[in-house]
């Protein structure tokens, strides 16, 4: 799906949540960045005309600020795996089980935290952490508007505002978005979303930040997924050509609401609590498959239409932290309890066989009578208790260690196999350490264990939608950070990440195929090269390998599907002296060949993309604005993205965009 937007609410208010800043104990971390939002201003976190991911990024591992984003990783891919599927999402540092991620109406930024950056978190997890920072309205009233268009015909408008209600006590932030989107594969969709954030500070020791967000998508046409007949890539697929049928489309609502809070119980005592409700309510969804695709463009078209489905998760965390100071050392003890209750109703697809087709042939068949099957249901209940110790020693380094006991229960009710139950109650351990050799040189290392939800079988598997059991994971990493200058830093590290390997086997069934070991090296260079030139550059070099009986018997290759041996990125932002308000930026990304089939006989070729952009101040009366023009994939590179083992979607081509932002 092209969208993961958000939803409705039920008038209900939840618990409280809290992220305790390190400075609450009078000693900030000199080593690991404190988990905090990237925000131009607390009093008005709009200021969207000033959003610039290159100048605001802490490192090259991944950040998004409004519509600006860059980095080696994303919320769906860290070190080759999905941190969201692994349950590694946080809102202002607090545990969150995600269906819908926080939308821009309520989200100030998204930061990918791996290596040294994740050591600022209590109870880190393998595969890194996706940290969402909420917008926090303050005492200054204001509004920000944005209009975005592109050459494909897409157009969107959004507005955000802050309304102080009681000075230093109560402030409201709200926003809305509407769009008609045209996509490179010829499909289109309509969408809108809304969000509200309330910041309430009844006393200097208590801050509560409830929020609500909803998103709606209508008529999101299902572009084709191409499955070649043999061990080969698809033939060239024309862009901007949707062959239908038009009734194969997604319509649905999604939502996320919850609350965060900060409660200081004493000079060195903090309580952290939080609760969130996240859901997708799909009125209809579709998968459009081009099966047995031949080199001459012949294929068999199969459309799967899903009946209304529902995905709901309630999650939260409560954490008590007690600190005490011993000279230059700060000790902290953390006691945490997390829980989630996730329920899903899905599957029951109606299968529509449209028969033999030819690439480029339009489908005008009216929608047939759909015979939906009985749906599957599953329920996950999990609670986790944890105890952790943290030491921060000024001028020397940091150390932390923790243990968690988790109780995971899952029940799956399927029409064909009946009721199945799985349960896991492991102990999970972690330890991290960092040593400060000089004020600019730090070395770090960590060991982390986790229990991850593995999701369901993909749409091109014969057991599509079948749940996969939870898996145990572990990770070892380490490296160094060197502050070359006060404004420029280099990070170099390595990692070894291991987990069970699930993918499609020779019978087209999604199942366990062995174990995967992903070893890699990460590099990041970020900061100011000169007062007018900022750079964010990095790379990840991977050596992923699959081991197990399936590899030994030759049923699958030893390289996992979907991995590239290396990814490189470089972003530069330059403000010329002749025009201080003008900003020019260049982004270059390179990805090596991607393993596309479990037998390792097909690879998506390597790819290098170049994006260009620029922005200039455009003031409207007393309002400050900016106009940004950009061209992505300027050389119009063609190719494919992987949609599952042996399944492909076409890659986006050159895109011209124009965006005007104004702050009032």
What does this protein look like?
By secondary structure, this protein is mainly beta. It has one domain: Maltoporin, Chain A, CATH 2.40.170. The protein is built from two helices and 36 strands. It has a 22-stranded antiparallel barrel. The chain has a six-stranded mixed beta sheet with strand order 2-1-5-6-3-4, with no helix packed on it. Strand 7 and strand 8 form a beta hairpin. The radius of gyration is 25 Å and the shape is globular. About 45% of the residues are buried. The N terminus is likely disordered.
CATH topology: Maltoporin, Chain A
CATH class: Mainly Beta
- Count every helix, treating DSSP H or I runs of 4 or more residues as helices: 2
Q: What low-confidence regions span 5 or more consecutive residues with pLDDT below 50?
A: 1-28, 34-45
Beta-strand content estimate: over 45%
Task: Give me the secondary-structure category.
Answer: mainly beta
* Number of domain modules: 1
Fold blueprint:
Blueprint lengths: L52 H4 L6 E3 L2 E3 L18 E3 L2 E3 L10 E7 L15 E6 L7 E9 L4 E12 L3 E13 L5 E16 L2 E16 L2 E5 L20 E18 L2 E25 L4 E9 L2 E18 L2 E18 L3 E9 L17 E18 L3 E18 L3 E7 L2 E12 L2 E12 L18 E15 L2 E17 L5 E21 L2 E15 L1 H4 L13 E9 L8 E9 L2 E2 L7 E2 L2 E11 L6 E9 L7 E5 L2 E4 L4 E9 L1
Parallel strand pairs: 3-6, 12-14
Antiparallel strand pairs: 1-2, 1-5, 3-4, 5-6, 7-8, 7-36, 8-9, 9-10, 10-11, 11-13, 13-14, 14-15, 14-16, 15-18, 16-17, 17-19, 19-20, 20-21, 20-22, 22-23, 23-24, 24-25, 25-26, 26-27, 27-28, 28-29, 29-32, 30-31, 32-33, 33-36, 34-35
